[in-house]
Amino acid sequence: MKLLKIIYSEADLVTQTILENHFDMNNSEREFDVHDAAIVGLFEDMVGKTNSLLVLLNNQSFNGADSLTRMIMENFIFLKLIFQRDSNNRARSYFYSLKLRQIKFFNTMIEQSLVGSEIRKYLSLSIDNLYKKFPKFADNAYLEDIETGFIDSLNHKDKNQKWYNVTGKINNFRALCKYLGYEKEYILLYQTFSSEVHALEATNYFKFDHGIVEVYRKGGEINTHVMVISNFLIEIIREMYSYYELKNEVSKFNNKIAINYKLIRGT
Question: Which superkingdom (predicted)?
Fold first, then answer.
C-alpha cells in the first residue's frame, strides 16, 4: 500500500499545480470555464474517495472499501471518456447533467405529493422556504439555460439522454465501459464490488445457529483495491497534466513513480 499512498500524495498536488501553471485570467483561452469545473471536480472527487479508502485500509476497516473502489472506477471511466476526444463538450455535458439532476431533485422536493411532503417534513422546510433558499430554481431563464446547455453540448436529443451517450447507443455504464475498452474491468471489478453497494453481503456478517447469533466484521484482501486504484490514479494524473499542457509535470510524475516503485520493490 506504500505506492498507493505515494500516488495519492502526488494526486493531491495536481489541481493546485494546474491552477498555478495553466490558467491565466488575462487570457480568454486560459480562463477557468464550465468544462474545467467538470474535469477538476471529477478528479478531486476521485482523489477524495482515494483518501477515504486509505483511511479505511489503514485502520483495517474493510466495510465500504468495495463501494469506494466502485465509485472511483466511475470517476476514472468518466474522465477517460472526456479525455478521449471532444473534451470541452463532453465535460460540459457532464457539468450540465449534474445541474439537471439538482433541478430534478428540487422539483421532487416541491411537488404536491406524498414523497414531496415527506421530504419537506424531514427537512423542516416549506415550499416557500425552498424557493427562498434556492431562488435560481424558480428562474425560468436559468432552467432554460441549463437545459439548452446540456442539449447543445453534444447535440443530445433531449434532457433525459445520458450525458455520456456520445454515439447514440451508450445507454448504461456497462455500455460506456465497453465503448472505452474497459468491459472486462466492469465485469471483474464493478459487478463484483456491487454486492456491497446493494447490501447483498449483509447476510455474510451473521451466523445463526441454535439460538446463537455470531456477528462478523468484514475481513480483507486489499491487494485488488490497492492495485486497481493505483493504476486508475496514475493514468488519470498523466491525463490531467497532458490535457492542461504540462508535459514537464508528466515527466516529473513518471520519474517519481518509477523511483518509488523500485525502492518499494527493493524493501
Answer: Bacteria
Where do the H-state alpha helices sit in the chain?
2-21, 34-58, 65-84, 87-110, 114-123, 127-133, 140-154, 173-180, 183-185, 194-197, 223-243, 247-266
Which of 135, 165, 195 is at the close of a domain? 165
How many structural domains is the chain composed of? 2
Q: Is 203 found in the same domain as 160?
A: no
| The pLDDT of residue 208 | 54
- Closest-CA residue to 231 (of 185, 174, 183, 197): 185
Q: Which domain holds residue 218?
A: 1-85+173-267
Question: Could you give the CA distance from residue 146 to residue 152 in angstroms, rounded to a whole number?
Answer: 10
Give the bridge partners for 208, in sequence order. 213
Q: What is the pTM of this model?
A: 0.88
Query: Taking a C-beta distance cutoff of 8 angstroms, is the pair 43, 236 a contact?
Result: yes
71 and 118 share one domain: no
Which DSSP letter does residue 187 get?
I
pLDDT of residue 265: 79
Kindly report the backbone phi and psi dihedral angles of residue 7, in degrees, each rounded to the nearest multiple of 5, phi listed first. -65, -40
- Residue that has been written with the C-alpha cell 493514468 in this structure: 235
Residue 11 scores a pLDDT above 60: yes
Residue 264, all three cell numbers = 518499494
Pair 97, 70 in one domain: no
Q: Which residues pair with 243 in a beta bridge?
A: none
